[in-house]
Design a protein that fits this description.
The structure holds two protein chains of two kinds. Chain A is of the alpha+beta class. Chain A is built from eight helices and eleven strands. In chain A, a hairpin with an 8-residue loop joins strand 8 and strand 9. The longest helix of chain A has 12 residues, at about 5-20. Chain A is elongated, with a radius of gyration of 21 Å. Chain B is of the alpha+beta class. Chain B has two domains: about 15-125, no CATH class; about 155-395, no CATH class. Chain B contains eight helices and 18 strands. In chain B, the strands form four sheets. In chain B, strands 3, 4, 5, 12, 13, 14, 15, 16, 17 and 18 form a ten-stranded antiparallel β-sheet that branches. In chain B, strand 13 and strand 14 (about 335-350) form a beta hairpin. The two termini of chain B are about 40 Å apart. Classes of the chains: A alpha+beta, B alpha+beta. Chains A and B meet through strand 1, strand 2, helix 2 and helix 5 of A and strand 4, strand 5, strand 6, strand 7 and strand 8 of B. Chain B: This is ResB-like family protein. Chain B: One of its GO terms (biological process) is cytochrome complex assembly. Chain B: Its main location: membrane.
């Protein structure tokens, strides 16, 4: 889902970042109500494929016109670490990365800032997806709970760092000996994270720059 | 020195409060606020739709904001941008409650004062007083009718095809998520749905989630990312993988069309992401449910399969209705409908009654009213099996406003007649000054 879809959300997000977090709705509720189904009601089929369950897409689900994604400069202030360059996200990244940067002699290191509306599925699920990208087993609940925190937009973000063979989105082959860093924060309205990935030696060399970049990120005050 | 024995006793706080509630000024204030609510609700209806405006202004205890920009545009004052005024005002429900209280207190006060005056002057209760009391009771009764309607009214619609029998209808606005065990099918043939009312999931927008469970259900159901108006579309490159289910994604749609007219509430297609979590293995199954789906999302846990779907709430009828024949008459030489009629059979307790429903003649049966609402134009034109749509309403207080209006009219008429008679009698005695009316 392109970032552009969430332009109306981005300003509140920036505002939300300036304030304290919102309450997470996560309680369990017992289903108490039941209803006898009419004997005249048609019995639904079982295990129908999605293509048959949903109406004809082309005709019934019109595309909502997407405005251009907002420039990161309109939303945030940050310090670009020395030797890093800001690039325009392309392909699938265009819809997900608010700010995309490269570093290293051949620009093989990537560091980007992403925003996902609606909690993005939660921190744990996303971190474990990153682990999978690096060929690592998902964190156990204990390991996840023990993750260190680092500041991101003035909030505590879960910080992860692991090595492995990296399989990028849409790629079938893994590149060996890579390292990934991430700082991720989520609440019920959005998830925001900074993710760095690249050859292990290059990422280790840029870990301080990663921290510097995360600390420097500030939402632009809305006037 | 002041004689304390004859000094008037200060009224207690309770009496003062009662006096305020019973006062004419309080009634004027409440009615003024009701007028303001009606005005604002009518203006906001233009961009927010009838259903949402009614809920905000007339079916609420309090109003917490006024959409000023929308009101300005509704008054043809050009204003771009947003201007929402945070404010705390009593809502329509509270105001009508206060008005009922005012009418009751005012009525009681009037009875007491007139009884006292009557005892003092040896005058019995007259026609005028009785008339005013009837009018007071009538207004309270009318407000009560509104409350009963709000709490107990059921409205919806049902499509019936010729030779099809129905015994339930679908709500216009209220939704639920239903879970039904599909396999193995119940041995007694009785099908049952577990229901999650929309009051428990309508707030789960923008990533909020809530988990629902039930004794005996082999999974818990997490409902998340509820969308009031949405559509399912095939996923594309760039869509977040966490939102893609079986190659599809739920896309939120705007609540306004290109001309900024609100999509009517009854036409909105709601949907949500759901996650079934196996109670034993904790394995997770992610699915999409949407109101327009042709079949429910199936969750299989062990050897049991369950259907999970979202839709408008179904209300049960205490009888069955079978559409025998649908007849459409057109204006000569045109395809324009002149009259359409549904010939139905109503079956209750094994007894059948043949009835007719047409455009101007609803069927009223068993506390329900069936209005001829629509028909299958395509089927009507090509012939063959026809379908008819009935709007169904059940409102225990359906006729109460009419009764209260008639009663109020009688009461006020009694009061008028009494005062007129009194005036004429006093006028006849030329030497007696005319007393002012005391309504």
């Amino acid at each position: 889902m392109p970032v552009a879809r969430f332009i109306p959300l981005l300003s509140p997000v920036v505002a939300c970042l300036l304030m304290s977090g919102c309450d997470q709705v996560g309680e369990r509720v017992q289903i108490k109500e039941t209803r006898e189904i009419s004997k005249h009601a048609t019995r639904p089929p079982v295990a129908v494929a999605s293509a048959d369950r949903f109406p004809q897409m082309d005709r019934e689900a019109p595309e909502v016109e997407q405005p251009d994604p907002p420039a990161a400069e309109e939303l945030f202030d940050w310090i670009t670490p020395a030797g890093w360059t800001v690039v325009q996200p392309t392909g699938a990244a265009r819809g997900i990365r608010l700010l995309d940067m490269r570093f290293g002699p051949n620009q093989e290191g990537q560091c980007f800032l992403s925003f996902l509306p609606g909690g993005g599925g939660g921190v744990e699920a996303n971190v474990n997806r990153w682990r999978t990208q690096m060929g690592q087993a998902p964190y156990t609940a204990e390991e996840f709970a023990a993750l260190p925190k680092k500041p991101l937009f003035g909030r505590d973000a879960s910080y992860v760092a692991f090595d492995g063979d990296f399989t990028d989105v849409g790629k079938s082959e893994a590149v060996k000996d890579y390292r990934m860093l991430g700082a991720v924060h989520a609440d019920e309205k959005f998830m925001i994270f900074v993710k760095m990935v690249g050859p292990k030696a290059l990422v280790v060399e840029n870990e301080a720059a990663f921290d510097e970049f995360c600390r420097s990120l500030q939402p632009k005050v809305q006037r | 020195m002041r004689d304390t024995a004859t000094a008037p006793k200060a009224p207690s706080i309770l009496k003062k409060v009662y006096g305020i509630f019973a006062s004419f000024g309080f009634a004027v204030a409440v009615l003024t606020l009701l007028l303001l609510m009606t005005y604002l609700g009518t203006l906001e209806q233009l961009e927010h739709g009838l259903y949402d405006s009614q809920r905000k202004y007339f079916e609420s205890w309090f109003i917490t904001s006024i959409d000023i920009d929308c009101c300005l545009r509704a008054m043809h004052i050009p204003y771009e941008g947003e201007w929402v005024l945070p404010i705390l005002l009593p809502g329509g429900g509270l105001l009508m409650g206060l008005l009922a209280l005012n009418m009751i207190c005012g009525g009681i006060t009037r009875i007491i004062s007139r009884m006292r005056a009557g005892l003092k002057n040896n005058v019995r209760p007259n026609l005028g007083l009785i008339g005013v009391l009837i009018a007071h009771v009538s207004v309270v009764f009318m407000l009560l009718a509104g409350l009963v309607s709000l709490l107990a009214k059921e409205e919806g619609a049902v499509w019936v095809t010729e030779n099809q029998t129905v015994d339930e209808f679908e709500a216009f606005h209220v939704s639920d998520i239903r879970i039904e065990k599909l396999e193995p099918a119940p041995a007694d043939g009785k099908r049952e749905a577990m229901l999650i009312p929309d009051s428990q999931f309508a707030d789960l927008t923008k990533g909020k989630a809530r988990t629902f469970y039930r004794e005996g259900l082999p999974f818990e159901l997490m409902v998340m990312n509820y969308m009031e108006h949405c559509a399912v579309r095939p996923a594309k490159t760039g869509d977040p993988q966490s939102m893609v289910v079986d190659g599809y994604i739920l896309q939120e749609l705007p609540l306004h069309d290109a001309e900024m007219k609100p999509v009517p509430h009854e036409q909105r297609v709601n949907g949500a992401y759901v996650k079934a979590i196996d109670a034993k293995t904790k394995a997770e199954h992610l699915g999409i449910i949407v109101r327009t789906e042709r079949a429910p999302w199936t969750v299989t846990i062990g050897n049991e399969s369950y259907g999970v779907g979202i839709g408008r709430r179904q209300y049960r009828l205490p009888f069955e209705v079978k559409l025998d024949k649908f007849v459409r008459e057109t204006h000569p030489g045109t395809n324009q409908a002149r009259k359409f009629t549904s010939h139905v059979t109503v079956i209750r307790d094994g007894k059948s009654e043949e009835k007719i429903i047409n455009m101007n003649e609803p069927l009223r049966f068993g506390g329900f009213a069936f209005f001829q609402s629509s028909f299958d134009m395509e089927a009507a034109q090509r012939g063959g099996q026809q379908s008819s749509m009935f709007q169904v309403a059940s409102n225990p207080s359906d006729h109460w406003p009419l009764i209260s209006l008639i009663a109020a009219m009688i009461g006020l008429l009694m009061n008028l007649v009494w005062h007129l008679t009194k005036f004429l009698k006093q006028s006849a005695r030329s030497n007696v000054p005319v007393a002012p009316p005391s309504v």
